[in-house]
Amino acid sequence: MERYRPPDRSKYLLKDEIKRLLASARSMGDFAFQYLSFEANTGVRPSESNTITVRDVSVAENRVRVRTLKQKAKAGEKAREVHRDIDLSPGYSKQLDKYLRGRSPEEILFPKSRVTLWRMFKDAARRAGLSKSYTLYGLRHSRCIYLLEWVNDLFYVSQQMGHSSLDVTKVYYHCMPSKRESYVNTKLGTF
């Protein structure tokens, strides 16, 4: 069994870096801001984000339905489509509601190519003065880490992220910045 390698520090953003990223995205226009806010607040895979329709978002329930293809199909079988619901904070749900007003239910939320979306992230990160090592997928890693910090429920976080097993989610525990700092300052002893 191959072990999943956790993201190193150059792969996820700290809270203040996410805020700087979103501030720079706001200066790039509403679409860039809304898209990067969506990624930061949901943790969806970039390949999933350009399949989400207005109908998939339930502002009243603070949820968004995400479809993904499971690529690990057995030989000769087609990859199957699976669905998961991602919970949204009420504050973000209100922000998303404003963005969705007047749009048809079949309309794609972010109808751009994945390459365009990745370039948008890189441009916003550059404008925010962030490390060049960051990628759009780093927002997904960040979401997982902060979900673990906020709710500390491994099963819930695994379901939200769409991980194939709890073992994949467990590797994010070592990245929780506030926990590490807390342990170093208060719980680690000296011999």
List the helices and strands and how they pair.
Blueprint: H1 15-28, H2 30-42, H3 46-49, E1 57-58, E2 63-70, E3 80-87, H4 90-100, H5 114-127, H6 137-151, H7 154-161, H8 166-170, H9 177-187
Antiparallel strand pairs: 1-2, 2-3
The CA-CA distance between the termini, in Å, is: 37 Å
**Helix/strand class:** mainly alpha
Number of beta strands: 3
At the fold tier of CATH, the topology name is hpI Integrase, Chain A
With strands numbered from the N-terminus, the spatial order across the biggest sheet is 1-2-3
CATH architecture: Orthogonal Bundle
Oligomer state equals single chain
Q: Residue-averaged pLDDT, rounded? A: 86
**CATH structural class:** Mainly Alpha
Q: What is the CA-based Rg, rounded?
A: 18 Å
Overall body shape? globular
Low-confidence stretches: none
